Each structure stands twice: as structure tokens, then as C-alpha cells.
Amino acid sequence: TRRILLNERPKGLPTDNTFKFTEDELPELQDGQVLLKALYISVDPYMRGRMSDAKSYVPPYKLHEPIAGGVIAEVTESRSSQLPKGSVVIGNLPWQTYIIADGKGLMPIDPNLAPLSYHLGILGMPGLTAYCGLLFIGDPKPGETVVVSGAAGAVGTVVGQIAKIKGCRVVGIAGSDDKTAYLKHELGFDEAINYKTTADIQAALAAACPNGVDVYFDNVGGEISDAVYSLLNNFARIAVCGQISLYNATSQPMGPRVEPVLLKTKSLMKGFIVSDYADRFGEAAAGLAGWLKEGKLKYEETIAEGFDQLPHAFLGLFKGENIGKLLVKVAEY
Ligand code: NDP
């Protein structure tokens, strides 16, 4: 099997030297084990956190061991009664072309339900994050204004579309003209702002949100979020989902203090990790699948081809190379 190991803990943006490719023989299968062939491997921003050894909600990757994350794989040999050869599973698995697993934590998926890759995106962790964060924290009401940053990514595209389904005015912030055009013309966002070319983001936001901001779904943090806070309405809700603009920062930048705004507007700001809502995943997954089937949710993916592309694809998240969910196709199903 080919593997990608964490070669060193990156300082700032990871580099080629963060990753090390190896090739090893796998041992024979034992009773209860399966041999998996990786089909799709997900790259996600949270993995940057696991490359550092700072304390967080998931433990750090170990040095010189494979990086791991969401993987869709096919069972190619089986000594497990639960997972017959030919079945397809999703799990938190190492970055390897072939993996021996004992079946624990693997979830079978039905290949006829939707394209397999959707289970790493809209029907998987990012989709659930969008649904739970927006609806359970943001609690958007018809006619309210919802702002989402990181709007053209895996989570952001779903957040904005759900907010439209809920009857809101939706404003997205993203990093290229292609992305803002996509948000407005394909996904039906009311306005979209390119934060890389807009000199005064706060003024652009004020123009895009004439009635202020009721819900802010924050994927990026930093100066983009600072611009949103000054526009909050009374009783606004802020779902702090991600802070990607800070994940590679070597020191934390100071922003304006947000507490006076929260106090004056009596707003709620809440951080969350999608797993907090595990007891509501059934409802969320059914909601997402239903809207997808009805054509109310559109879904985009940026798929890199080949195991070798994993490090580059991962780095692409921090350069904004993706529209929708970014993932790597490793093998044909
Ligand atoms: P995306 O598909 O949105 O990919 C990341 C995007 O972030 C890039 O395409 C890029 O788009 C944008 N970006 C990168 N660097 C910066 C920067 N410095 N400033 C502003 N934008 C930047 O990823 P996901 O949808 O998977 O994740 C989005 C956010 O949600 C992340 O912060 C992630 O950590 C978080 N998350 C949180 C979860 C939770 O449980 N709380 C679960 C899943 C995700 P652009 O061109 O617009 O810059």
C-alpha cells in the first residue's frame, strides 16, 4: 500500500516537506478484518489543526504516521461477516491506497442512493455542519438577512442555499469573481462579495445588507468577520463554525473587541463542532437528502485525481482552489 505520513509539524502554511510518501507491504488479513481499497479521500480544513500538537477537540496526528480523515472505500477482501466483499463503506481512515480495518467505526453506504463522493460532502460531515449550525444556532426566520463567509466552499454553499429555502436574504463572502458569480447566478444568493478585490468589505456588506445582519455563519474569522459584526441587528445569532483565515497563523491577530456589539445588540455567538449535534443527524441527513432530491439544493465538487494529489489538494483549501467540496478520487469503483 502507498501511504502519506505526517513528516513534520508545519509552521504556517504546510509545505511539501510536511508530507512523506511511503510504500509498504500489508500483512495477511486476520479473522474479522477487511481489506479496503480507497476510492475517495476527503481533504478538510480541520486537518490543519491536527497537524499541530496544540490541544483541540480532536487529538493531533502522530509524527511519521499516516494522516487520516474521511475516506470512502470498497471492501476488496473480507474475513468479516458484517462487511462482505464488494460493499462500500465510509470511515475515518488513514491516507493509504489500501487499508486493513477491523470494521469498527465503518459505516456501509448504499451506492445507489447518490454518487459515492456525496457522502464526504453534502450528505456527510460538511452538509451536516451546514444544516446543524445554520438551523440550530442561526435559527433563520423568513425575511431575515443571513451572511455566510467561506460561502463558495463545501459548508458555505449548503448554508446559503438552506437559508434561501428558509426565505432569507442571503449574502455570501468568497475569494474570487468566479465564486461570487456562481453564488449569485447558480445558487441564488442575493448578493456575493469578493473579499480579495473589495477594498472596503464593511461598506460593501452594508450595501448588500440594507436591513442589517440577523444571522452570521462564520467559516473564516479574522477581518472578514470583523466587518460583519458592526452590522448585527438586535438578537442576531452568530454560528462560529470555522476560522480558516487563522489556521496557518503563527501569531493571533488582534481585532476590534466584539463584546460591546454583542451586548448592545443582545446577540448570541456560539462556537460548535458538528458532532455536538450527533443526536440530530438523522433529521439533518433526511432534510438534506430530501432537498437534494427535490432539486432545491445544488451541489458542486472539485475533484482532484490520484492519490499523489492529496497534499496539493489539501493545500488548495488554503488557496481557495475549490468551489464546493474538495476531495481526491483515488480509484474507480
Ligand atoms: P471549504 O470548502 O470552504 O474550503 C476552504 C475555503 O476557505 C477555501 O476554498 C477558501 O475560499 C477559503 N479560505 C481559505 N483561506 C482563507 C482566508 N485566509 N480567508 C478567507 N477565506 C479563506 O472548506 P469547508 O467547507 O470544509 O470548511 C469551511 C469552514 O468550516 C472551515 O473553517 C472549517 O474548519 C469549518 N468546519 C467546521 C466544522 C465544525 O464542526 N465546526 C465542520 C466542518 C468544517 P476563498 O476562495 O473564498 O478564499
UniProtKB/TrEMBL annotation:
Organism of derivation: Pontibacter fetidus
Domain Enoyl reductase (ER) as annotated: residue spans: 15-328
Protein name: NADP-dependent oxidoreductase
Keyword Oxidoreductase: yes
GO molecular function, one term: oxidoreductase activity, acting on the CH-CH group of donors, NAD or NADP as acceptor
Pfam families, A to Z: ADH_N_2 (PF16884), ADH_zinc_N (PF00107)
Keyword vocabulary terms for this entry: Oxidoreductase
Top-level lineage group: Bacteria
Transmembrane segments annotated in the record for this chain: none
